[in-house]
Amino acid sequence: MRLFNTLGRRCEVFRPVNGEVVNMFTCGPSVYQKAHIGNFRTFLFEDILVRYLEYAGYAVYRGMNITDVEDKAIREAEMRRVSVRKLADRNIDEFLREMRLLGMKIPDYLPRASDCVEIAVEIIRLLLGRGVAYWHKGNVYYDPLKHPGFGKLYGLDMSKWPKKRVRFHRDTYPGIQWNRGDFILWHGQREKDPNSWNTEIGWGRPAWNIQDPSMILHSFSETLSLYCGGIDNLYRHHDYTLAILESVRPYPMARYWLHCHHLYVNGRKMSKSKGTIYYTDTLLGQGYTAKEIRFSLIYGHYRSKLDYSDEVMSSAAGMLRDFRRTVSLIRERAGRRPPPEGESARQLRRIFEERMNDDLDTKGAFDGMRRYCAGLDIDALKAGEAAGISRVLEETDGVLGVLY
């Protein structure tokens, strides 16, 4: 199995840190609002990855962070006149409901940022002690110039980094860009602020940049085999996370980094202001099934842009329905015969595994299997041969999750 490792920008043979065990962490939702289908494109890519690793015989342990306390959540809660906790609880419940609806495996670890404040504080204390972070006007900032190799994931040219100190104090900034300066780790707050904690470094709350490292340490204490997220996290966020953890631990954060590209709508990035945000409920309301929605979001290579439109959605749903009818005919032909794996079944499995082993080419795997089955003379298949093909389809659909 070969995967494209963002760290180094090349396809590499996948070799986990711990033999047959894969520890992985994936960026989860910021639960200040409901997740849209663009978010679920990334989460579904990660679900396919987990399922294929398990299909290949690995034991997979996955963590996913839940960002529940940051600038946007506080603003949203104030606007809705609810507590940040109540806002987060509601959106987390909805997120888990939609994960199950789309047939996704729930990660083994789902830490919340708000439950990892003590870990964040301990990381900050270590960074302060090593001179990588510093206090300024009640906040704590990280100085990238103090960390050799900063920006190695993105491939930053640090010779262009400003020598004059610049500080960025917000959790997130709009747009795909780099903030060339020091980034915030700790928001100092007034005593008993409803969105702050009384800690060993005083009242305050962890900034978004320190939250992921704290949630990773909550779940894992070694180099991860895999770290995954959306391509937008290549700007600032993942290099921040990597630098923080590798500043406090003497070993790499992760061996392989995988990033999923954006979902576009009619050729343009999804945007609330342009009215191009779609939710799973939107598509269910249009008459599509959960499996058809899942299929439309996995039918494309994860590193390529995926474009959504009414026409694309309708075409994908029709393609899936046609293949499901073919699969149903093969199952009927199989009857109750025991399923030996004959040459037809072996060829079908080879088609699936060849494409999936090539950097998780889900679209290529589906198309190859669909074409192969469409070329079969189903009426001429012997029951045992049909049973073997049916078994392969069922096992591979344990990864795709759209046929049965």
Walk me through this protein's architecture.
- The chain is an alpha/beta fold and 404 residues long.
- The chain has 2 domains: 17-264, Rossmann fold; 309-399.
- Helix content is 42%, strand content 17%.
- The chain has 12 helices and 15 strands.
- The chain has helices at 37-55, 71-80, 84-101, 117-129, 208-219, 237-248, 280-285, 290-298, 310-334, 343-357, 362-374, 383-400; strands at residues 2-5, 10-13, 21-26, 59-64, 133-136, 139-142, 167-168, 182-188, 197-199, 202-206, 224-230, 254-260, 263-265, 268-269, 306-308.
- Strands 5, 6, 7, 8, 9 and 10 form a 6-stranded mixed β-sheet that branches. The protein has a 4-stranded parallel β-sheet with strand order 4-3-11-12, with helices on both faces. The chain has a 3-stranded mixed β-sheet with strand order 14-13-15.
- Helix 6 links the parallel strand 11 and strand 12 (254-260).
- Helix 10 (343-357) packs antiparallel against helix 11.
- The longest helix is centred in the C-terminal third of the chain and has 25 residues, at 310-334.
